[in-house]
Amino acid sequence: MHTSIWEEWIAENGDLGSFEIISTEKTANATQTIRTKNPLSAEQWLAFFDSSSGTTNSEYRLAVDSDTIRRAIFAGGIEEDLRPVVWKYLLGVYPWASSEKERLEIDKAKSEEYWILKDKWVSDPELKETPDFVEQSSRIEKDVLRTDRALPLFATDSMYGGNDESNLNETGLPGSSATLEKMKDILMTFHYYDKATLGYVQGMSDLLAPIYSVYQDEPTTFWAFALFMKRMRPHFLRDQSGMQNELTTMANLVEIANPQLFQHLEKCDASNMFCCYRWLLIWFKREFGFENILKLWEVLWTDYLTDRFVLFVALAVLQRHSDVIIDHLRSPEDVLKYVQDLSDTIDLNDALKGAEVCFYKVRHRVQTVERIRKQRGLPMFTSSAESQDSSDNSGIGDQAIPGHSTKDTSNAVVPVTSPQTDSEVPLISFDWEEPKDNVSTSSSEDVLSSVGEDNPKDASNSKISIISRTPSLSPSPEADNGKGKKWSTEASRPAGIVNANDTNANAPQDPSLPEISYSIHKIFANGYQN
């Protein structure tokens, strides 16, 4: 197996260690981890409203900047009783600089607006006869009635749901409850509130349940959920461009942090990082216990180090299991099954500490390479003005441009392009070959149903096929991956390293240095730097 340029560069320039920061001449300036504190307490929270003189300001505004609060939450989380208030700040319901009077006005106005939005579909009999309503109502009911039913809050009650056994025999679904009916209404209201952009997509019920558990109130839950979905929306796009970007960036991070692991995943035809799809799609919702999901999400919402910290949580888990993956797994099915079987076995605090270390390690490598590239007159990262402006405000970064940053590996299956319009986004379809003669692009809900149900299809008997389509890009040479499948050479190379045979007429190249994609660069250029 070839040695990647990242592996060669790391061997020459040192490392930050795996999960421990070791003090050496090369790592003496490494940032120390802060994920070691106790959860934010009520006493600490109230102190954030005290002025420098020690008195609470009359308008009851926060007297510290949001960075201070985000750092405290990132370091230890939030005590349970404080979540209903603090989450409103983290999710953007309350502006950080708002006064108590303004917050009360926001609560009142948002409550009234919610009931108006809900009434638009509740009181419209004609709308309820439309195919869209019938389809979404059925989808939402099925999803909600399967979401977190083991928890007492979401259990069937006799008034609404009768008996689970009789319901399962009759409809194939468990019974309902007052709580579940409220969740259905919230999701249907969200569907019509967001319909012009996306609307409801399967998997969103998984993201609603934790928020509802904290507020247990329709209007408040709705707005907190709607704001959460604003940043999560790219994950649910039907052309899969958002999740494709996540998986591509995940592959880049693995290659930078652990080149040996990445090369093994390439050898296994698993460098597409499909094994991490469910983790990233719904933010580990099905990998941790319910209480730990609340703790994880509030850390991710801080955006303290980066608004893409979930990628580093995934990276930390893979790092922790890299020896097993390298030593024992030999196929994409092996990798997928092993990663999915980690559900309910991952220690959250260990994963968060590991993610912080991974962030500092990758940042150190990326910034060092970018500094050297700048000193040598090379472009710091692979991008263009157009690609930098093409991303939305979701925090999901852009991908590298074909021809700029590529490694010639015909075995790679992570498409890397920089689409300028939605129609140019390369699509990834995960086909379980059922039936074999019908391969089509599928949305995140299709993939979630394949790998995310409580009883997923047996991965050991499935084959993952990746189809890359770039309808608006000019044709490029094709490379055979050795298994009868053709990949576009430009579209198949993961960004992150330079091939000595690649040339770029517009910029100088140095094959001895790794190259950084814009997506990776942006992770460390934005957010809160520690």
Keywords, please?
530 residues, mainly alpha, two-stranded antiparallel sheet, 22 helices
Protein described:
Helix 5 crosses helix 8, helix 5 (100-122) packs across helix 10 and helix 8 crosses helix 10 (218-232). The protein has helices at residues 5-13, 42-47, 66-76, 83-91, 100-122, 131-144, 164-171, 178-194, 204-215, 218-232, 241-257, 259-267, 277-281, 290-300, 309-320, 322-328, 332-340, 348-375, 385-389, 444-451, 489-492, 518-525, and strands spanning 427-431, 465-469, 478-480, 486-488. Residues 16-29, 384-442 and 449-505 have low confidence and may be disordered. The longest helix has 28 residues, at 348-375. The strands form 2 sheets. Strands 1-2 form a two-stranded antiparallel sheet. Strands 3-4 form a two-stranded antiparallel ribbon. It is mainly alpha-helical.
